[in-house]
Amino acid sequence: MTEALIVVDLQNDFCPGGALPVVDGDAIVPLVNRLLAQASVRVLTQDWHPPQHRSFAANHPAAKPFDRGLVGGVEQVLWPVHCVQGTSGAGFHPGLETDWADVILRKGGNGALDSYSAFFENDRVTSTGLDGYLRSRGVEAVAVVGLALDFCVAATAVDAARLGYRVRVIEPACRAIDQAGALAAGWAAMDDAGVTIERGGVLR
Q1: Which residues are catalytic?
Q2: pTM of the model
């Protein structure tokens, strides 16, 4: 069974010192590089927002980061400005061995709608095209790693399972924001979708 490794948003703004840092986000880089070297098909995703993206709290009057609001008709967290197209914050962590990538998928470029998942924008209908690419490569299973576990990793894993892939999330190669119960919700969504959680050889 051909498996693709999807490395989600391992970017400077999600690492310590970035605009939206995930605690110890940079600590996963060595393990992710080892997984990239072993994988058959390798996908890197990159959050890639225009400056006026509606997911930014700064673009909602009176909103503060981590408030909730509507973005393209979808209720979600309103974020600090992060991963703006062409900025250093949107770049991959410098330790990530990006030369392994078969494809780099940029998401979140629609200023009116956010995109957590590598497969669909947050309306859960608009496709990124990744499913078609993986099918063309004969991929039947995916392993998902990266940042952040409770948002973009979980959304990618759930959508992959919904599309019929066999899915595992490698927890040691992920880190979570764990904001306002998001991690518990992410675990629940992945469990409901039948995603396997791999914890250093121990399955959850």
Answers
A1: 9, 107, 152
A2: 0.96
